Amino acid sequence: MRLPDLPGSLSPLGAGASRRSRALESSKGLLRRLYPSDGVTGSIVDRREIPLPASTWPVFGIAFLGFATPVIGFVELAERITDGAKLPFDQPVMEWLQRRHSPATTRAMRAVTHLGGVWAVPAFALAAAGYLAYVRGSRRPAALLTVSLVGSTTINSVLKIMYRRERPTFFAHIVQEKSYSFPSGHAMASAALAACAGVLAWKTPLRWPVIAGSAAYVPAIGVTRMYLGVHFPSDILAGWCVSVAWVGEVATIMWLMDRLDSSRTDVHFLEAAGPR
Questions:
Q1: Which residues contact 95 (CB under 8 A, 6 or more apart)?
Q2: How far is the C-alpha of 248 from the C-alpha of 244, rounded, in Å?
């Protein structure tokens, strides 16, 4: 004999679905309290009300590739360093630069290397961020500069302690450094600053001048560190990889926040202009 259908709330399947539904709503309610309406997480939780922009996932895919490629490069270099293997290009490149030492070149290298200093670059970035935030009213670009540059300096300090690579010892250092060698802090700071400048100038007439300037500035800082005898080429490459990955991810998050703000504004406008 066929039993009569039970109401959804009384049937085993219905009870399970009801419990899952209540748990989901409870989780959403908790997240809404933590992230009421502003911010990325709150908007994603409430995406039925404020949908994510259509181009979000393709951009995330590109951002993931842009993040994964330099990270893979860094990991490959770091594994060689950890295993104690000598990278074949490290010493020959530095010896080639050493043969080109001269008093005039050394003075120029000492002057240029300060432009990528791990204190000078964050100080410049914070000053630029303050100008953008309080004079121009551009808080998102100011946040990009602050998070990218201060974060780059912090990450560099952590990585140096993790890998503890000693500085090159096969010729005398022209400048003295007390920290570890891998990755290069100057390379990370200069690459992070150049990447931020490229992001901020991308949709402006300054795009190509900024790209050209960065293409000269970043390698120049790297060369000075090798010329002065305080970094291997692999230290420089590792620093560039980390900074490109870090700034790329920060810029992607900023882009998503901009798009969510735009979507939220559009939804509120449509609600306000609804049927009367």
A1: 170, 171
A2: 6
Alpha carbon separation from 188 to 24, 182, 238, 240 (Å, rounded):
43, 11, 8, 6
Q: What are the Cα distances from residue 18, in Å, to 5, 11, 48, 84, 157? A: 17, 10, 20, 58, 50
Element of type H or E holding 52:
none
Q: Are 112 and 221 in contact (CB under 8 A)?
A: yes
Q: How many domains does the chain divide into?
A: 1
Question: Is position 221 within any domain?
Answer: yes
Residue 11 to residue 222: CA distance in whole angstroms: 69
The C-alpha atoms of residue 118 and residue 150 are separated, in whole angstroms, by 10
pLDDT exceeds cutoff 90 at 88: no
Give the pLDDT confidence score for residue 71 in this predicted structure.
85
For residues 87 and 76, the answer to whether their CB atoms sit within 8 Å is no
Radius of gyration of the chain (CA): 26
pLDDT exceeds 60 at position 10: no
CATH code for the domain in which residue 101 is found: 1.20.144
Within a domain: 16 = no
Structural domain boundaries enclosing 75: 56-260
